[in-house]
């Protein structure tokens, strides 16, 4: 995918950066997940850079864990974009903190977890979101998973077939979303609420949720220590981090 030369947009990006990142192992004790290094920059800067190529100039960071450290980091950073920090008083999950933005976001805005780095033509995704009258769009990708065992198909105790290490393809959630502001009415105030809870609530209330695909090669997950190490190789960061 070539460089995106999109003009400045009124779409804002909300980055959910308040979690403890327990799956990242001991590195999180001194360095919160948004600030883990990726080739001389922090992970959250990598996310911001990817969305800046789509013309976004306004970013919100929802913070809780080590919020002062993250805020201090950005206050001492030379930036060509606007960033505002929204601090949770307690952990509100992957969607609960969005309720704090009711008076800040526009009618359509984007949301990203802080452990997801993707390439996306956001203008095309938003166009699909609006054209299909969606309330929420999940940015998705295909994931191939090879089973490490032979899978036995049974009828009671009788073996009907055996598949040796079959390969399955699933459509997965990348952790990036496009939302209508109206979605916020389904989020309870000051309560822990996940994005999965929000999606389930929208579907239950017959509000349209769609998936918009990106290529698997344009999606990088850094949510666990093992995936972070793989991302370092994929991004060509090995040997570049100074820590």
Per DSSP E runs of 2 or more residues, the count of β-strands stands at 13
Q: Briefly note the structural class of the backbone.
A: alpha/beta
Average pLDDT, to the nearest integer? Answer: 87
Give the H and E element order. Answer: EEEHEHEHEEHEEEEHEEH
Helix proportion: 10-25%
Number of helices: 6
CATH class: Alpha Beta
Question: C-alpha Rg, in Å?
Answer: 19 Å
pLDDT under 50 segments (min length 5)? Answer: 1-6, 239-243
Number of domains as seen in the coordinates: 1
Strand order of the largest sheet: 5-4-1-6-11-8-12
CATH superfamily label: Spore Coat Polysaccharide Biosynthesis Protein SpsA, Chain A
Helix and strand arrangement:
Layout: E1 13-16, E2 37-38, E3 41-42, H1 43-52, E4 58-63, H2 67-75, E5 82-87, H3 93-96, E6 108-113, E7 116-118, H4 122-131, E8 136-146, E9 150-155, E10 158-164, E11 167-180, H5 195-204, E12 209-213, E13 219-221, H6 225-234
Parallel strand pairs: 1-4, 1-6, 4-5, 8-12
Antiparallel strand pairs: 2-3, 6-11, 7-13, 8-11, 9-10
Structure description:
The structure is a single chain. The chain is α/β, with parallel strands linked by helices and 243 residues long. It has one domain (13-141, 173-234): Spore Coat Polysaccharide Biosynthesis Protein SpsA, Chain A, CATH 3.90.550. It is 22% helix and 31% strand. It is built from six helices and 13 strands. β4 (58-63), α2 (67-75) and β5 form a beta-alpha-beta unit. The longest helix has 10 residues, at 43-52. The model is unreliable at 1-6 and 239-243 (pLDDT under 50).
């Amino acid at each position: 995918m070539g460089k995106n030369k999109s003009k400045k947009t009124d779409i804002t990006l909300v980055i959910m950066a308040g979690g403890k990142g327990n799956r990242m192992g001991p590195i999180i004790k001194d360095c919160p997940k948004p600030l883990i290094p990726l080739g001389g920059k922090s992970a959250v800067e990598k996310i911001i850079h990817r969305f800046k190529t789509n013309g976004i100039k306004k970013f919100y960071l929802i913070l809780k864990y080590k919020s002062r450290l993250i805020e201090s980091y950005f206050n001492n950073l030379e930036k060509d974009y606007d960033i505002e920090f929204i601090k949770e008083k307690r952990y509100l999950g992957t969607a609960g903190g969005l309720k704090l933005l009711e008076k800040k976001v526009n009618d359509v805005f984007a949301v990203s977890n802080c452990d997801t780095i993707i390439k996306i033509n956001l203008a095309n995704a938003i166009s699909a979101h609006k054209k299909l009258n969606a309330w929420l769009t999940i940015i998705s990708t295909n994931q191939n998973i090879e089973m490490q065992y032979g899978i036995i198909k049974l009828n009671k105790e009788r073996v009907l077939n055996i598949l040796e290490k079959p390969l399955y393809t699933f459509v997965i959630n990348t952790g990036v979303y496009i939302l209508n502001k109206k979605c916020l009415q389904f989020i309870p105030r000051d309560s822990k609420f996940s994005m999965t809870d929000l999606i389930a609530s929208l579907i239950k209330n017959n509000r349209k949720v769609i998936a918009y695909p990106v290529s698997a090669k344009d999606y990088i997950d850094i949510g666990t220590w093992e995936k972070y190490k793989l991302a370092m190789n994929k991004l060509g960061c090995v040997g570049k981090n100074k820590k």
